[in-house]
Amino acid sequence: MTIEPDTDDAQLRSALKLHLSYLNEEAGGVRLDLRESRQSGAVLRNQDLRRAMLSGCNFDRGHLSGSNLSQAHLVGASFRSADLVGANLSAAICRGADFEEARLNGIDLTGADLSPTRKKAGSGDEGEVVNLNRVDLSDATIVRTNMAGASLVGVTAERASFDGVKLPGADMSGANLSGSYFRATDLRGAKLREVNFYGAVLTNTDLSGADLRACQLDGADLSGAKLENCIVAEDMGNLPEYIRTKISLHFQWIATGGTAGSRADFSNADLSGINLSGADLSAAIFKGTNLKNAKLAQCSFRFCHFQGCNLDSADLRRADLRGAKLNQVSAEAANFERANLQPMRVIDPQTGKLARELASDLSESQFCNASFNAANLRDAKLSNSVFTDIGCEGTDFSGCVAKRADFFGANLAEALIPPRYE
């Protein structure tokens, strides 16, 4: 039974009854056909819509929680802001479907086809990709699903399972994937910038050529993962080959917990003006390195050693410098706005409990005319350093040790919490 656009509820109820008879192979049963119809706002909770013909249908803001849409035809269908919590879309054909801002908590997408719509021969049309931007996929089951090229920008998928999923070229920028499972998943060339992979399992996942700039990988398991040619710094392609090699090996060293790659040591190197924005260089060594005018925004420098480093006029906005050693550095006119210089919490791997907190060390250094606006320096060591004329609007200096530090010309009244200094 084919439903025309703007179907009334009575006709839809009748069509659903006939579809149920069709599924039960009863006489007079008719497969549900809502292709290209407008069903926005429809209330279809807990319905049996298996194998239904729903391609091109508009279910925007619809209520389909708990419904069974397995093997349904959903090519080009729209589910914007719809409620699909707990729905079953296993083996459904969803090429080019639009799920933007839909609620998909606990959804089952096992074996579904979420690849782009097929190209039109000779048209130059690349086909429509599946739109899952800003949806909630928390606790979803997505196993052996084809999601090549899908757009999942800003998606929330905590504790979701992506086992064996094909996601080459997918865009998951800014996604929250903490605690999710990506075993043997294909993420080649995927855009994963600023993704939160905290505690995620990515064992045997192929991340070759993926963009992993400013990713959060704390507690993630990347054992057996392929990490060749990953983009882990802003200007990766324009960096000297030896720098690219060091950064790539260092990223592998971090991602695998030291079982692969090697720790980067840039001691005494001239890296002035270099662009490493977004790179994860935690625990790298920069002793005596020249980083004057370097672009280091949003880098992760946790536990890094910068003793004797030249950071004059460097851009360190939003950098993660927890537990870093910045003693005896020159960082005049450097930009530390919104940088995180709090203590780094060290967790005992045996007990899972806090073992200690390692404070950032900025002692015996020159920070004249630097900007620390909205930066967090809680418990940082600032003794014997020069902070003359710094910007400190909204800066948190709580618990700082600032003996004999020089804050002449700095308006500490603008600080969120001023330091205690002598």
Q: How would a textbook summarize the main sheet? A: 2 strands, antiparallel
Radius of gyration: 27 Å
Pattern of helices and strands: HHEEEE
CA-to-CA gap between the ends? Answer: 84 Å
* CATH architecture heading of the largest domain: 3 Solenoid
Shape: elongated
What is the tally of beta strands? 4
Share of helix among residues? under 10%
Q: Please write the CATH class name of the largest domain.
A: Mainly Beta
Tally of alpha and pi helices:
2
Q: Provide mean pLDDT, rounded.
A: 90
- Adjacency order of strands in the biggest sheet: 1-2
Structural class: little secondary structure
The parts where pLDDT drops under 50 for at least 5 residues are 1-7, 120-125
Give the count of structural domains.
Answer: 3
Strand content: under 5%
Stated plainly, the CATH topology of the largest domain is called Pectate Lyase C-like
Q: Would you mind describing this structure in some detail?
A:
The chain has 422 residues and is largely without helices or strands. It has three domains: 1-116, 3 Solenoid (Pectate Lyase C-like), CATH 2.160.20; 152-259, E3 ubiquitin-protein ligase SopA (Pectate Lyase C-like); 265-422, Pectate Lyase C-like (3 Solenoid), CATH 2.160.20. 7% of the residues lie in helices and 3% in strands. It contains two helices and four strands. The protein has helices at residues 9-23, 241-255; strands at residues 344-347, 354-358, 401-402, 420-421. A two-stranded antiparallel ribbon has the order 1-2. Strands 3-4 form a two-stranded parallel ribbon. Strand 1 and strand 2 (354-358) form a beta hairpin. It is elongated and about 90 Å long. The model is unreliable at 1-7 and 120-125 (pLDDT under 50).
